[in-house]
Amino acid sequence: MTQQIIFYLLAIAITAFSILAVISKRIVRSATYLLFVLLATAGLYMLLGYYFLFAVQVSVYAGGIMVLFIMAIFLTHKPGKDIRTKKGWRIHASLLLSVAGLLLSGYIILNNAIGIVQFIDKEELTMQQIGTAMLGTGKQQYLLSFEMMSILLLACIVGAILIARKTKNDKNESNETEL
Amino acid sequence: MGELLIDNAGAPVPILAYQLVSLIIFFAGIYGFFTRRNLMMMLISVELILNAADINFAVFNRYLYPGEMDGMFFALFTIAIAACETAVAIAIIINVYRNFGNAEVDNLKNMKG
């Protein structure tokens, strides 16, 4: 019963904040609503029993990525200014597309046999199991993906620095125009 | 009706409810992606879409194959990839802002190819 109440509270929060995040006129508010969606999602993971995923979601998504977002927003926007959205038929077309997609997918989900699947209680995943699965090379173990992820992160750091750093020409221009 | 409520009250949350929540996040993201002109707002929409995919991975794993944890690892790796994608995208957005003075997607037709 408690589980259900918590789930429906989280579901209402997720629905409201995800819709607010895409219709809000202020960009910082929008980022804050995104933060609430991510935290509520972390709550869903905890409800499912994935405590490690909960910790990762809170620390990486709601912590790391949101700090990046807020920093980038303050670097690229003047505070207190409304942002512009597309006008006219584009909004109606997008709304129509989203609602049509929502209804179609909802219809498919509701009429699917997967609804009869039951929740089976099981023991909590231990850190030992997760560690063995992440750093093993056997069946259903993920050492290769784990190492690929480290290479990807390295490439991402190098790429981000390379893209965002100032070249000499930029520096001269920015001194003149004081960006 | 009363029996139905009592039967369902103690039961765990059905898988459909999780799927509907993730569906709503996904299409909110789609709507934001199509209506926003600002690159940061488009990135926020992409994060919503990725988040919906993560929820589906975890939920399908927990309900359909409770003895295994492939879906959980997929969600973990997706979160890491989302972090990479955000960092690179923000670098690009800062670069666009430096060159054009604002971060709107209409400017990008003027990019040098």
CATH fold call of chain B: Helix Hairpins
Beta-strand content bin of chain A: under 5%
Number of domains of chain B: 1
CATH architecture of the largest domain in chain A: Up-down Bundle
Secondary-structure-derived class of chain A:
mainly alpha
Assigned CATH class of the largest domain in chain A: Mainly Alpha
Q: Helix content range of the residues of chain A, please?
A: over 70%
Number of H/I helices of chain B: 4
CATH architecture identity of chain B: Orthogonal Bundle
CATH class value of chain B: Mainly Alpha
| Portion in helices of chain B | over 70%
Which spans of chain B of ≥5 residues are poorly predicted at pLDDT below 50? none
Major sheet description of chain A: none
Query: What is the tally of beta strands of chain A?
Result: 0
The pair of chains with the biggest contact is: A-B, 87 and 73 residues
Q: Work out the number of β strands of chain B.
A: 0
Can you tell me about this structure?
The complex is a heterodimer of chains A (179) and B (113). With 179 residues, chain A is mainly α. Chain A folds into two domains: 1-82, NADH-ubiquinone/plastoquinone oxidoreductase chain 6, subunit NuoJ (Four Helix Bundle (Hemerythrin (Met), subunit A)), CATH 1.20.120.1200; 125-179, no CATH class. Chain A has seven helices and no strands. Chain A is globular, with a radius of gyration of 22 Å. Chain B is built from four helices and no strands. The mean pLDDT of chain B is 85. The interface between A and B is large, with 87 and 73 residues.
